[in-house]
Design goal:
The protein has 152 residues and is mainly beta. Helix content is 3%, strand content 36%. A hairpin with a 3-residue loop joins strand 6 and strand 7.
Length: 152
């Protein structure tokens, strides 16, 4: 919905494909989103608020894009569940580097509408929602009266 003028809601994109997980760039001129227009889920960036210049960011599948605060990097989850980073330059034009792998994650449901991770403002730390591999593989031992054991 426009913030000025006639405040009437209008769709940003209407295509035959499934676009989801949209995230605005910090400057408000670019929209990162996931689309299946290539036949699988990929990350794209397109001009905003009027769609126009479009760039495919992921090279081998991807989802859940988000810009780092300040807009110098764009993160996304690859189809193999690796967290990826792309250096970007945003403004009246858009430039992106080749995606680089950061690390493997254990997230599930890449193309659902959930947010799977959050990055700190400097992009150095991440909070990730992940699935436990095998919850029975790590037992928890509780020691009662442990202070009594110290006296022996």
């Amino acid at each position: 919905m426009p913030v000025s003028g006639e405040r009437k809601p209008a769709p940003y994109l209407q295509t035959e494909f499934s676009e989801q997980q949209g995230r605005l760039s910090p400057d408000g001129h670019w929209m990162a989103y996931t689309s299946d227009e290539s036949g699988r889920s990929e990350v794209y960036v397109q001009s905003f608020p009027v769609p126009g210049s479009k760039y495919r960011i992921s090279t081998n599948g991807g989802a859940d894009p988000r810009f780092r605060r300040g807009g110098k990097e764009l993160f996304y989850l690859g189809a193999d569940r690796k967290l990826m980073v792309v250096d970007v330059k945003i403004g009246s034009t858009f430039e992106a580097s080749v995606p680089k792998e950061l690390f493997q994650t254990r997230v599930s449901g890449l193309t659902d509408s959930r947010t799977h991770y959050a990055a700190t403002a400097d992009g150095q730390r991440f909070l990730i929602i992940s699935n436990a591999e095998d919850p029975t593989s790590s037992p928890i031992n509780v020691v009662l009266n442990w202070t009594g054991e110290l006296k022996r």
